[in-house]
Structures are given as structure tokens and as C-alpha cells.
Amino acid sequence: MGVRLMVVDDHRLLAEALASALKLRGHRVVAAAAPAAGAADLVIARAPEVCLLGTAAPAEPGVFDPVVKIKRERPQVAVVVLGPVPSPRGIAAAFAAGASGYVRHDERIEGVERAIMKARAGEAAVAPLLLQGAFGELLNPAAQPDDEAQRLLEMLTPREVEVLVRVADGEDTRRIAAGMGIAPSTARTHVQRVLMKLGVGSRLEAAALAARTGLLDRAGSLRGTALE
After folding, report:
1. What separation in angstroms does the CA of 24 have from each of 3, 7, 21, 103, 109?
2. Where is each HTH luxR-type domain found (predicted)?
């Protein structure tokens, strides 16, 4: 038995092509509309069994607001998101908004149809490989390329990290030397090396950079671990 559904995508040609393919397979396609920003009102008005909602950016804030609105006004409508290979956050955001499934844009029509049928039956419609990749990344997250604090810490030796923390605490060269049990000249050399590696011109700048990036928190936890 065919499913009564809607196809909504920012790309009208894609929406119309998918709608045509699904009609040929015996489904009742109510509408193929663009842009997706108006999807919620259309779906609420037509009340299909399943809505295929296309998105090009599943990680963008607010992209799944239409899903939230649809589920609030028409909770019986199952929403299946059509999108690119998602990040774990993208999949999580789609399901958190109330989506019943996630299908890649390049999925074969048979795969899209299976997702539609599962969603109508109240099942989660997402490819096992997508779930496997999502859970794998969530359980074993890769280091973030924009983690500036980690990048800066990797430039410093453990002793230089301690010097930086002491600089941020306002210690002068004499107190740094006494606290670390080293000569003042050695402490001064360490401070200069820290400033050079961080690319700053003063102790104040070094302290500000360390605080802004969260480097001080990381450094503090590292020192605590070393003392245990």
C-alpha cells in the first residue's frame, strides 16, 4: 500500500525528481515544495503520513526548527531528513528535533523507500553504517583542529607549562625561581622561551592568551595529574 507523503527540499529539481520516482513506485506524493523554510506550514496544512525534508547543512543551528514545529502541530506525521553525510551532532540534532529517520541525499530510491516505510511504521529509519560512524566518533572523538589551548600546550615543555601558570598567577622572576628551585637566570630564560613560543611580547599578553584559550585550565589539570 502506498504512503501519503510530501517531499520538501531547497532544490526544487531534486524534490520534483524524488517525488516523481516515488509516484512511479506507487506512493501518493502530496507536494514537492521549496524552500524548506516553509515546509512546516505546508506539512501542517496537508498532514501527510511521512514528510521527506531535505537539508544541505544538518549541523547548522535552527535547521531542524521545521521538524520541531511539525511534530508539535502534527505529531502523527513522521519526518525523514534527507541530507549529506552527517556528523554525529547532525544525526543527534535531527532525532532530538523529532525526526524519525535520516537518509543520505545520494541514497538509492530503494533505500529512501525503506526509510519511508519504517518511519510510517514508527521505527527509526537510519542506515546502520551512519549509526556506526556516529557512535564511533562520539565514543572516540578525534582531537578538534581548532583546539587552540591543546595546540599551544603541545608547544611547551612541562617545565614551561609550570612557568606559564606561575606567570599567570603574577609571580615575578625571583618567586618563579624560588618556587621551582632554579636560578633566577634560568627562570628568566624559561619565561622568554614561553613568550617566544606563544608569540607574545609580554607576560601580561601570555597570561591573557592562556586565560582566553582555556590553556590555564588544561595546564592546571596537567600539573595536578603530575603531582599525584
Report:
1. 12, 14, 5, 20, 11
2. 149-214
